[in-house]
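User: Hi! I'm working on a homework problem where we have to compare a predicted structure to a textbook description. Could you give me the structure for the chain below?
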Amino acid sequence: MTKKVAGRLAEATGADLYEIEPLEKYTAADIDWTNKQSRSSLENADLSARPAIKGHVDNFAQYDRVFVGFPVWWYREPRIIDTFIESEDFSGKKVIPFATSGVSPIGDSGKNLQILAPDATVVEGKRFPAEVSADELKTWAEQF
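Assistant: Happy to help. Predicted structure tokens:
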């Protein structure tokens, strides 16, 4: 769901698109939030968890605004997003979080990301449903 919304946002705004990929791919069992021993449940319970990611953004310094999208996990960003934020230099950048979820709010994700990127300006962000239109995304993004 997040990948589709991110693609729609990039297309609507003419932005570059970068996919944050885990070094170890998540399986359906890994993201089973009803299983307290699933990978996602264990990562969520550990504030210091930083799942490894593949690669880095080429020429990251050229960007002054970065939209960071993710699915909502337990009313916050998944720990792999924390890995990404800590892996790049966000100094002086505006970070705009957006999340996908059927009903769960984005929670304190913006505040969490601000702590991880203290030299950036992180806005509150917004949660979108899967069917959000490109026009709505473009209108939202234009405010930043």
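For your comparison, note the following. Helices lie at 2-13, 39-45, 79-87, 109-116, 134-142. The CA atoms of residues 17 and 96 lie 14 Å apart. Good luck with the assignment!
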